[in-house]
User: Fold this.
Amino acid sequence: MDLEISIQSLLEKLKDQLSGAGADRFCLLDVREPWEAGLCSFPSSRLIPMGDVPSRAHRELDPDAHIVVVCHRGQRSLSVALWLREQGFEQAQSLAGGIDAWARTVDPTMARY
Assistant:
């Protein structure tokens, strides 16, 4: 599994999840700060700011789940996805381009900052 997931692949996973076709366990992990998530976010995401991930990951995340980590532009999420993999979360991936790329290519109504 690649360390990054494309916007298009995430879009397909979200469509599958909404239709009930997605068989695998799937989690959107938003590692931005609460003020950023207040501006725009994925409705189904779980907010754990990057600085809190080390203390909360093993208590709140399923190590067997497919975890897509999201941040503003993809840098923090890449770092967190790599850390999660080092901790045994083998299916952690970072959203390439972050929520900003999502807003530009998939949902132009989403606020950008």
Observations:
- The longest strand covers residues 26-30.
- The two ends are 30 Å apart (CA to CA).
